[in-house]
Amino acid sequence: MIGQNIGLRYLIPLALDKLDENILADGDLYDGDLLQVVLKSDKEYWKAERENWKRMCGIFNRDISLLESHYNARSIKEEWFSTFADFKKIN
User: Fold this and answer.
1) Is residue 74 pLDDT above 90, yes or no?
2) Which of 33, 47, 54, 89 has the highest Cβ tally under 10 A?
């Protein structure tokens, strides 16, 4: 539902709890797909919920080395980092 921008006010905090425990938590497809869908979710939500935006940035920055060293395909890793670069520009 996050990927469809439905219920973000309720679902993003739950997703952040999950990502805080394990940034590579998977949704349905692969390790880290929850991270990707959260980072790509509606920019207006993140503008309105700046504290959650800060929290997501903190989680990502804390776990950069884990993301870099994970066995996922290079293209997936590149997408995480490129999506996060765009995400940081929101606020």
Assistant:
1) no
2) 33
Cα–Cα nearest to 64, from 35, 26, 91: 35
Show the domain range for 20: 2-88
Which tokens is 10 given?
Answer: 């309720």
Among residues 58, 56, 34, which one has the least CA distance to residue 45? 56
Task: Measure Cα distances from 13 to 2, 10, 65, 70 in Å.
Answer: 11, 6, 24, 25
For 26-69, the pLDDT digits (tens) are: 776 678 889 999 999 999 999 999 999 999 999 999 999 999 88
How many structural domains is the chain composed of? Answer: 1
Per-residue H/E/C for 33-54: HHHHHHHCCCHHHHHHCHHHHH
Copy the structure tokens of residue 58. 């903190």
